[in-house]
């Protein structure tokens, strides 16, 4: 409540300083407006020019956009390129000795590698994959800690035209198994362990659990990077191979395989409102173009920058702004293995000071948790290298925005609040920081060529101040191409009939102010945003119902100070409704259960038990009521259509 209210009344405006504006890639509102006008007057001409100038093509494209099989759009379809070549090789003539990656491990050890060294490592690993017969179009699942090797593995796949699917290291064996099966992966790349916040994270044993779960006969090899203290790992002879053995003796040169612009670069699974996770499939050229453009536009990339995106490579943010974007523009970037609060809440600031980070990109949930641990901690560090700050993942509350702006940015760094999604591949709504004045809590305006709008149920634009559905009215190069194995679901999820299958429906509600600034209000579907991570309520419900004790479950979100939203589950057991100690015990068990079914991030923060759930006479669970119950709000809705109104009382009791 408070978040949305304060956003609605926010009136502060922060234009870039003269110094920032004068030096910016896109300098001043006129420059921004000119780009937008170019896109509006000649859409294909605009994107064609961007693609020609920013991507090195092996074979130039002659056609920009093909809409004949909408919504399965094709961009630059007769062009050929290689994404890894664009991220590494093309920089070597001038930047071979420039640092590509500054890697800092959990305990603070720093490893620096140049573009030349990155080239060698990527080529060696690519040659390893090639020698086992992995070729263009094959799928490789990557289940890795944050590391140089995770990026090497992604780039090596791109180099030979294989399609990677990175699975976040916090997902359970079950979730990993499901993704391996859906992608029919031939290889899984992992590490024996990860290290986060001083704790070991067992990765290889989770991979084994996934593969032992059945259905993964497609996997021929598991490549295991030796990260942590243990010298050995659970091992299957013939299938498992250490990373260092896998690359031993492999040549440090590997010709990049030319692929078609529309060849899938990767699949990344994300939660939807119903059913199993969606395999979001991205293209090679269009995706790469989005990554490059937004590095220059939103992050105002300069060759002297030290760029740091704190996201894990298991999420889209870590794909676009760790795995591809920074490399594609030849940047030096920091990659961090650990967590913001270890060994203390000054970790981020200490790293910014030590590595002289100039562009820093993180999530509101991290900012909020660091404020809570000590609002003055940043003062203890020299943050003068910073010139630009970014946020992503959820709406940022104006208080957190102001803290970030003043305490971290010293009042001199523009804040780029970037709205986008796994499906959009790169930023959609975000300030060009040398042009667009920012407002705390708003992701500001669409980037050039992004035809975003807010419409009502019938597809008509809503007036300023009114809420509506966020849509993108024209296809754009970096958008999702389809859902892996499920083109029907792709159409249904994103291109609804109500909008003649033409508008891309993002799934967020938003409104615009008098200046046309976008303010994101939240999801319109049954998707939760927990610490900037997307979770489907249905997914958590299915996990709960799969437990032998559970008869029925409904999951809703509830506002949470740090996480944005927390997970509240309403559960009906097969046995009698538990109370007291017994209820506590069952809750602990069910939390663990969800952790092992999906992953720790999906564990319900709260579970309430009832003899039943509030349902309509036709048997539909009334989630709106449950949301009110979870928030502890008085029920003002009409409950006369409820089959069992008395049940609400029960559910309102907390443990
Ligand atoms: C959903 C997408 C894109 C990377 C991170 C999440 C929410 C994302 C913002 C923002 C308000 C935001 C939306 C969106 N979201 N960025 N700057 N302001 N909301 O990717 O898991 O695909 O989730 O995250 O609800 O639909 P994702």
UniProtKB/TrEMBL annotation:
Residues that coordinate or bind ATP: 393-395, 417-422, 508, 523, 534
PTM note: Acetylated. Deacetylation by the SIR2-homolog deacetylase activates the enzyme.
Residues in Acetyl-coenzyme A synthetase N-terminal domain copies: 32-87
Residue list for modification N6-acetyllysine: 620
UniProt keywords, alphabetically: Acetylation, ATP-binding, Ligase, Magnesium, Metal-binding, Nucleotide-binding
EC class name: ligase
Protein role: Catalyzes the conversion of acetate into acetyl-CoA (AcCoA), an essential intermediate at the junction of anabolic and catabolic pathways. AcsA undergoes a two-step reaction. In the first half reaction, AcsA combines acetate with ATP to form acetyl-adenylate (AcAMP) intermediate. In the second half reaction, it can then transfer the acetyl group from AcAMP to the sulfhydryl group of CoA, forming the product AcCoA.
Protein name: Acetyl-coenzyme A synthetase
Taxonomic source organism: Leeia speluncae
Source lineage: Bacteria, Pseudomonadati, Pseudomonadota, Betaproteobacteria, Neisseriales
